[in-house]
Amino acid sequence: MNIQTRPDALTAQDEYRTRVPGKETLVPRKDPVLWSEWTEDAPIAKDEAGHYAENGFLIRRDMFDEDELKMLTDTADELRNGGAGIPDDDLIREPDSDAVRTVFRLDRHSKAFRRLACDTRLAGVAEFLLGDRVYLHQSRLNYKPGFAGKEFYWHSDFETWHAEDGMPRMRAVSASVLLTPNGPHNGPLLLVPGSQGVFISCAGETPEDNHETSLKEQKVGVPQPTTIERLARQAGGITSAEGATGTVIFFECNTLHGSNGNITPDPRANAFFVYNAMSNALKEPYAAGNARPDFLANREVPEAISPVQGRLDG
User: Phi then psi for 287, rounded to 5 degrees?
Assistant: First the structure.
């Protein structure tokens, strides 16, 4: 694996200023998208690596067998229903109901999901994409209940992680494991191909304790509709990341994404693992008075994952 490092001169300054007075601006990306050079021993095919570099995401299918998927979906149901005694701090509910929207620190509440987070099919791919050993910045179960699941508005994860968590560079990737079928009708992940190549510097300031409202409805650090339209038209459209249970979607931290609400009877559940490069550990927030809580951003001394091969078990 060819590990690329950023110039030391860049570490002393903020190359991705955001939440600033004035107008929203678009800044060219200053980091690689794919941090490794592809070789025959890479964990993904050459065309997959090229697709990720060009579009900012990669969809991989049929990565788990039926027994593995049953274990994961059964465990997800238990967690969502409070079977693990999850503290309120790690639960986010829908704005207009008590329905669970997100379970945070998924890897800490479940041995099965911790094992999944360390699996080479996820962590091994993340190491390749980021050209470094990785650790978990955040893990969560996103659940969009039938009839009640609200939309997630368009945003770049990196904008928030940089502004409010202190993530220095674009050297992180999310892996979304579909735990239910994600079809065109029940609010699948929507992505703007190529949007990872530009940083959207948002106007405004970060309110105190912004996370308390942004987790239910994000209003700060989101692009203007004209910017979303411009990037989507440049991309030739929006990609709907649909798939059967067990599909894994890797998407780069700066890729613009969102999802529609779910007004169907069919729930949508996905497990998210955010992998950050060990060389990209968090600093002080770049555009917020205080760092977000630990359940949103792992501020402990990073512990590198040792990817594990083999079938998942309970």
Answer: -150, 40
**Residue 249 corresponds to which tokens in the numbers above?**
């979607």
pLDDT (tens digit per residue) in 243-300: 999 999 999 999 999 999 888 999 889 999 999 999 999 999 999 999 999 999 999 9
- Domains recognised in the chain with CATH numbers: 32-280 (2.60.120.620)
CB-hemisphere CA count at 13 Å for 235? 24
Place of tokens 């674009």: 170
Task: List, in sequence order, every beta strand (DSSP E) within the chain.
Answer: 25-28, 57-60, 91-93, 100-104, 134-144, 152-155, 172-178, 189-191, 198-201, 239-241, 248-252, 257-259, 268-277
pLDDT greater than 70 at residue 139? yes
Contact 201, 26 (CB under 8 A): yes
- In contact, 232 and 167? CB cutoff 8 Å: no
Tokens of 130: 């980021």
What type of residue sits at position 90? D
Region label for 209, one of left (φ > 0), alpha (ψ between -120 and 50) or beta (otherwise): left
- By residue count, the chain amounts to 314
Q: What amino acid is encoded at 146 in this protein?
A: G
pTM of the entire predicted model: 0.91
Asked whether the predicted pLDDT for residue 65 surpasses 80, the reply is yes
Can you state the angle between helices 111-118 and 66-80, rounded to 10 degrees?
130
pLDDT, one tens digit per residue, over 177-197 is 999 999 999 999 999 999 999
Contact 125, 187 (CB under 8 A): no
H or E segment and range at residue 241? strand 239-241
Rounded Cα–Cα distance for residues 114 and 60 (Å): 20
